[in-house]
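As described in the Methods, two query proteins were run sequentially through the folding procedure within a single session, without resetting any intermediate state between them. The first query and its resulting structure tokens are shown here.
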Amino acid sequence: MQRRPLMAAALGSAAAWVTGRPARAQAWPARPVRIIVPFAAGGATDILARALANRFQADWTQPVVVENRTGAGGTIGTEAVAKAGPDGHVLLLGTSATQAITPHLYPNLAYDTVKDFAPISMVATVPMVLVVHPSIPARDVPALLRHAKSRPGELTFASSGQGAITHLATELFASKAGISLTHVPYRGSAPAIADLLAGRVSMMIDHAPTVLPHIRSGGLVALGTAGPERTPMLPDMPTLSASVPGVEVTSWFGLLAPAGTPAPVVFALNEAVRRALTDAEVTARLRDQGADAIANAPEAFAAFIAEDKARWGAVVRGAGVTLG
């Protein structure tokens, strides 16, 4: 994904659609709008949702409320939006986890993350980085692969939990690289990073903002970024796909509505996201989270989710992970 060119093209397309939307969209919003965050307050998803809500509030006559509905790996809040009335007054700040990964971990979900939602726009992406403990004798990806292949299963990797994107990103890397690693799951990134810094585990793929302070201090060694292109946070760091083709992981956040939401409302919301992502306060909040702002057209976002979901399905099946 080429972020800046894609964003420019998407915004132009969205603006054209909004200009031509029927007049009946002007009646919306007719009552308070709720943005459901399926995770706890204070996390990245919650912070981004509140930044959007504040900007939306400035434009609309109706209140905009962020509601945290947590539990079951984000499925409770996500289901609430899937089953809400499709009128644009209940929205979801979804993520790569809720829309692309979770469906493969919980096979008995009461909703479909593609069919039961109307994508509005991506909001942001957060880069991920492969880091190793300094004791690992590798300072680039090829050296790590040679080291791992010489001792199959000996190297361990931490994750923020079974089935988390930090887990599956490393499973994807190992599968594409043809190496055997041993997974050590934790309850969150903080304890995982603590053990990695102590040398109790060998490596981890985690979000750049989480590991960047430890890279700068020398506590961890960065070998590559997991996205399709280099990140401005580590401009000299090569991508993992440069050494292991097919390893591209995008941790993303986006706004969605229930399926059946009228097209004029979807387009109006898309325009609202576009305006928000040019607001100085919103972009500052994104930077604080290490996120890159990116908006796209509803149909482009829908296609991206379907593709991402299919790709993560293959990873989950290959890793043999299931949670429900």
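Immediately afterward, the second query was submitted; its sequence and tokens are:
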Amino acid sequence: MDAVGPKAAPAPLTHKRVLRIALPIVLSNATVPILGAVDVGVVGQMGEAAPIGAVAMGAIILTTIYWIFGFLRMGTVSLVGQAAGAGDDDEVSAWLTRALLVAAVGGAGLILLQIPIFWAAFELSPASEEVESLTRDYLFIRIWTAPAAIAVYALTGWLVAMEHTGGVFWVQLVMNGVNIALNFVFVLGFGWGVAGVAIATVIAEVIGAALGLWFCRAAFARPAWRDWPQVLRRAQLIKMALLNTDILLRSLMLMIIFSSFVFLGARFGDVTLAANEVLIQFMYITAYAMDGFAFAAETLIARAYGRRDPGRVRRSAIMTGMWGMVVCGTTAVAFLLAGPWLIDLMAKDAQVQAEARDYLLYMVAAPLLGCAAWMLDGIFIGAGRGRDMRNMMAISFVLYWLAVLMLLPVLGNHGLWAALLISFVARGVTLGVRYPALERAAA
């Protein structure tokens, strides 16, 4: 990684360096679906449907709420990476403290507002009385570690910015491993049911945050992390707030696009809805693989920006973009060749299998058409160009809805898939148009 300090020479940009950043993220992502499967699997051994529904519903509610704080990871990568690139050791430490303060305040706010938040969630997604009761038990246990869960975003962002993605891997591996082990103990061993799943997650989140703090110990080696006049500098807090707000707005628009895709697909019947859900898992596979290289783009661009080196910005963008294209091309070919088998593996209903095959080519096209958007997201995050991300996302958002209005009545579910792919292309094109300005600003 680049050495920190104003006189330090930058480390060379090599493919080995890109892979060293990216691969631990790809491997850590692989543990996420395993945890979800175990959560459902252990309560499934109780022989009742309600506990499964409660765990699934509770996890979705909290995942959605915590996902809103994803801006904290992205913003932290940009701000810390640029400080490291500029050789400002004190700001490298101070930015972590600021991010952890946001996590603490945000988590405390969720704890205080848990009753109205959960009420709103159940109003939007009503369930049976039994499922809702069990879900409330689950939520009221898990919400108490909201500060720790959100802090993991901040800690992950700092580690990615410092190119310590091996630390991110171990945090995720230990956190998910502890969660899985305690699920078996609390649910199958002690018979605690849904509450046992929640308690296991609470313990795992606290351990994950503690381990993340340990991996970030270099930040606490400098007095700047608790130099409160520096940490609470108005200019830096405003800078952080503006960047994180822009990223949040961009992320909300993206979430609305994907949520509307699910809801609009439901209009075409249960079979089509199920087929869409099966195929969207292919996109998650692509995203898990792409994350590592998008993260590499974030940190390398941030460091180049901190050094005010447009040449390194361009080289970082090209090198990480090349790996992004390799991943997207590989997944597209894999979906083309293995798609029917994967569909049969995920869905046993013959109608759903047939329906999913009808739309498989959209998922073959998705990695190819979405590659530019996904990689440019990482590039713009690293450069701290939150306003560009927000504005280009707004254009893509409008184009998506125009495509839905025009294509859905004519092409049905094919029109819905086409609209989603159009939003990918629009995001890639609009961000691409803004890229020269990003490079010029680095100087």
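The mean pLDDT is 90. We note this only descriptively and draw no conclusion about the first query from it.
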